[in-house]
Amino acid sequence: MSVTARVPQDEVSREAAGLPSPYLLFLGDTVEPGYAKTAFGLRDWVGERCVGEFVLPGGRVSTGLPALAPAQAAAEGARGLVIGVANAGGIIPSNWIAGLVEALEAGLDIVSGMHARLGDIPELKAAAERTGRRLIDVRTPPTGIPVGVGKPRLGRRILTVGTDCALGKKYAALAITRGLKARGLDVDFRATGQTGIMIAGAGVPIDAVVSDFVAGAAEMLSPAAASSHIDVIEGQGSLLHPAYGAVSLGLLHGSQPDSFVVCHEPGRTEILGHPGFAIPSIEAVISATLALGQVTSPDIRCAGISLNTGKLTPEAAEAEIAAVAARLGLPVADPLRGGAAFERLLDSCLA
How far apart are CA 257 and CA 126, in angstroms? Predict the structure, then answer.
């Protein structure tokens, strides 16, 4: 299921793309919070559509929502179970199957953003047919994606880029969209990942697109618009990521952003899931994005830095934001903390 129509950000509380909400968030046996970004994203941005969480034995990640078995969630009004995990490779482990079948038998549809297709798993397919429930794969790109052309197009575009995966590109894009809308501007959030699509009800799962068509998919996602219109495009991966850099590059070329915001998590030292690969510096990401972005957007510029300071105290976060701003000479903020620093970042996005 993929949708590419415009969905204003103030409508994100509506049921997204026909998905069966309210949701029960499935966390499986996940032990790494970074892999549960779908669950956390839904909790943080459309929490009114989430009734609880379902964690399997051995799981050590929680969203803080009530722990509910599928039957309990159905009794609380849940209509769908969302796989809230985005693990390496997007696989559905065999030890999850019994829990997912339990959800189907409790009357819940299953919504997945994994690369693995629900209907390709015999046990799930049989249970869905037996119970009359739906298996919904969000990470399915639309048909007819063209090859990118790289030609200039009207409208303004802001892209979030990162020093790694799962460190705040989606949150930054959503917060920037919300902040610019609060200023009365014509802005759309453009989702490029499964969680963003579930939140906004529109988008293209860019990492499920064949590589030759990634730039074209990005052009299709953020088409020509009025000169006053702004698209804030959710970034994916990192240009300097050892596995996912190709996705990030195609998205950069097709988005043709006028400006970009670099997202970074202070304290993270290694690429998530890739021990031995050091996190690139913010400066390295700025340099790479400028050099490669100029292929389709000659005047591309860095608007500033978004720091994910969720693991820091308010005092430490303020000090880190000030230190990075002084080092780089750019606006730096944690969009979720807001304040004057975030307003300066928004000013720079509009410069």
Answer: 45
Look over the chain and give the mean of its residue pLDDT values, rounded to a whole number.
Answer: 92
In this structure, the answer to whether residues 212 and 309 fall within a common structural domain is: yes
Q: Tokens in use for 154?
A: 């009207």
Distance CA 63, CA 12 (A): 20
List, in order, residues 6 or more apart from 101 with CB less than 8 Å away: 123, 124, 127
CA distance 68 to 60: 15
Closest CA to 260 of 229, 228, 292: 292
Q: Are residues 329 and 182 in the same domain?
A: yes
pLDDT of residue 11 exceeding 90, the answer is no
**Residue with token string 């307003």:** 343
Question: What does the block give as tokens for 56?
Answer: 């399997």
List the Cα angle 235/40/58 in 5-degree steps. 120
26, containing H or E segment: strand 23-28
pLDDT score, position 9: 33
Tally of domains in the chain: 2
Give the pLDDT band (50/70/90) at residue 3: very low
Structural domain including 276 reads: 156-350
In the chain, % of residues over pLDDT 90: 83
Residue 78 lies inside a defined structural domain of this protein: yes
